[in-house]
What does this fold into?
Amino acid sequence: MLPFLIAIHAAVAVLVPPLTRVMGARAFLVASLPLAASAVWALSAAPAIVGGRPAAASVPWVPSLGISLDFRVDALSLAMILLVSGIGAVIFCYSAGYFRDDERALGRLASVLVVFAGSMLGVVTADNLFALYVFWELTSVSSFLLVGHDDRKENARRAATQALVTTAGFGLPMLVGFIILGTIGGTYRISELVAAPPLDSPWLPLALILILAGAFAKSAQVPLHYWLPGAMVAPTPVSGYLHAAAMVKGGVYLIARLSPGFAEVEPWRWLVLGFGLATMLIGGWRALRQDDLKLLLAFGTVSQLGFLTLLAGAGTHTAAAALIAMLLAHGLFKATLFLTVGIIDHQTGIRSISGLSGLGRRMPVLAAAAGLAAASMAGLPPLLGFVGKEAALEAFVPGHAPGVPAAASVAVLIGLVAASVLTFAYSARFLWGAFADKPTVSERRFPLPSAAFTAAPVLLSGAGLVLGAAPFLADPLAAAYAAGYPHEKPYHLALWHGLTPALGLSVLVVALGVLMFVGRSAVARFQKAVPRSPEADLGYHLFVHSSYAAALSVTRRLQTGSLPVYLGIILATLLALPGVRLLVALVRGDLALPTGDESFRLWDNPLELVVAVTLVVTAVATVREHRRFPALIIISALGFGTAGLFVLHGAPDLALTLVLVETLTTIILVFVLRRLPATFHTRPNGWGKRMTVLMCTAAGTFIAVTLWLATAARTAPPVSGGYAEHAEGAGGGNLVNVILADFRALDTFGEIVVLATAAVAVASLVLLNRRDRVVNEPEEDEPAEDEQGRDEPGPDGQGAGEPLPAGGVGQPAGGAQTEGRR
Amino acid sequence: MGVRGTGPPEGWEAPKERWLSTVVRPAFGPRSLLLEVAARLLIPAILMLSVFLLVSGHDRPGGGFAGGLVASMAYVLRYIAGGRHELAAGLPMRPNGLLALGLLLACATAGLPLLFGKPVLDTAKLELVLPVFGEVKLLSALVFEVGVFLVVVGLVLSVVAALGARMEAEEAEARQEQEIDQARRERRRLRAEKEGHE
It folds into this structure.
């Protein structure tokens, strides 16, 4: 069923763009169908899955590499499907009201959103590391397209690139980690790896660190969190979907997926707890400072993602139960809040705290929905956020968490409380900023949103309330996932656990949070007074710019543009490394000189002597000639002489080809010579020329000696031994040709690809040169006449329909004469 | 005018068609009648030779590469004799098209055997007895050779187009601009003189 659901996503993604042309933004309703279908399927399969019978499917992909599209849905995947597809479907319906029908590139947006939903579904259900990686990167790429939706704005393009470079860039080490893990574990199936982790391998910690790096980048953990606030340039429904409900949860999901097997491996827990806590605190602190409601939510999301990462990686029974509750709670309340901001932005045109006032009175339903969601985020009963936060606090009460040292759990607990206080404060600030009456801000006039438009946030927020008031609905899911961890007494999600330390901490959080909100002006003053830490964004820019600079400086050093220098470097390397080695070997007598039949002999045929003398004479003459054209002619003669040697040795094919190539290159060089000075620039007998001659002579001698020694030094029988017999079978009498077109045809194929590439490259290089010239031309004062007179060749230089220049203007005399005769 | 023996030939003596197909503006130097005649006579023969080399390559010296080089010689000769318009008029398709077609043929010969469960680039053989030609041996390697042939012709033609024809065009353009400049200066001078008179 699962591969089929993903296939439906792909099909709908293809169908949606034409639909938007007919239906406008209402095409999003069609686009939501595959998501709704997935959610319904997940709900219908839920009883069996929670009962411990995961749904599984498998499609072979590359069997020889052990890569297949394995799918497996257990309690964790089920929770994620509900987030990805359930909340996704609601957000898609909301998008139908959010986007205008004439929104630019609406079809692309809808299509990419469906692709994203499909790949995310793949990420959370894949049971093969490679399949997971492919879907993972698909989400990165589609997120790039979605963040850069408004591709005419530079900041959108930059934010999209930043998100892609960060998430996909850290995806590569993650792939390496996957490969190491699969190799040491002997399988690429995630369920098998988690069930039987290769704990005794020394490579395991490295693999886990690499995988965590990828997960941290995806889930925007400090110091890689910068891309998430940047990605807020995306349309608000996209932000609500990708950056609250779905994509950023990918990293958390991966950590939670691997945690049952690997949480006890050494650096795992420290990394997860450390980065998670830091992210929680920094995100919360910066959320308090934002004026833009959407950015406030973005930093709030960063903070919550730290919280989720910490719960996912802690690897204890209670933390696992808390994770499921918080995953659902965060998906519901953050999506609600994003959609609320979307409505505010859509109706009023602004989303800045300092510009909004009195919205609560105008839109009481929306304000109530947002209020419930914010209360859930702050952790107030009877909402799902409270249930989750209780469980999370309970998980780190010292002594309750097996495997976590007491000191560490106290530190985590303090961090959790501090971050929760910040969360309470920014939740309150969000509500106040969006809906309160502010005496210093004038009210704006705006149209009220339609009921259907408001329905989405109300629905999501209501779901949070229902799940919070009736925690037994979500509890089986949490219990089923948490059962994978060792535990004495199963933890159950509930509103009331009795008078526990966790409840006391919750009360403390609320009290401190209220204090912080009441004293918000003092908090703001304090935040202004604290020197700002350098932004992580800066690190990204430094990295990108230093890569550019490094690439440029390397290119500048290697590509000086001087052909003699290139050749000189190549020849010098040839002489310095293999040349010296050969010399040393000859001097020390390591190399036996060929003897007997293969030893040195003057000629096989006296005619060779004649050709050789010609070659020597032409070679010397070429070097002595300092005019270009004669030098070209003499060097061609040298080439023809070499062809003569081939003929004498009985290789007519080689000779024929060489003669043809020599002829053509000579002609083409003559074309080029028109543009070059008549003589070479080097002084006829200067030191530069002497050095060149010396170096070339040395290189030539080296090649000749090497060839002579190498042919004699054969130890294995030549591979061409049976060629002559096989050629008959292949149906050819010309062995050279049969080798080229049959035995070694793949080589020939590679060569013609190189030839074609070279042809295109030569043509484009010349074209590039020409474009450059045209661009730099100053503006003419009489453009009409200028255009008429110019003889502009087509892009390939000789389009058959190229018009002849208009008669008269600047035609050579010969041409005019011929025209006359016609 | 009208004096016999000084003007171009008239009546039945007048040539019915040109030696080459376009208005000749040779790539180098002045027109050469000898070159034009030689080009016209030789080009078909050269092209025939190239096809012969291509087909006979499997048993005798030759093959797609040599054949392609010979065929491109024919076009280079045409270019030298008649200039870039002549080259353009004689081409069956653009050099890029030739490259693409050649690669496509080579890819097809490489890939088709896979469909029949054979290794890549496997050779199939077909022997026929045709009425005039007698026994004929057709190899799928010949199709591959045709691909090589086309790529080589495409390569040489793009190089000739880029280094020869385009440079020539640029030179012509530069000449033209110079003349336009001159004409403009002339006109300004006249206008200035006229205004001076008034």
Strands of chain A lie at 55-62, 67-73. Residues 771-822 of chain A have pLDDT under 50 and may be disordered.
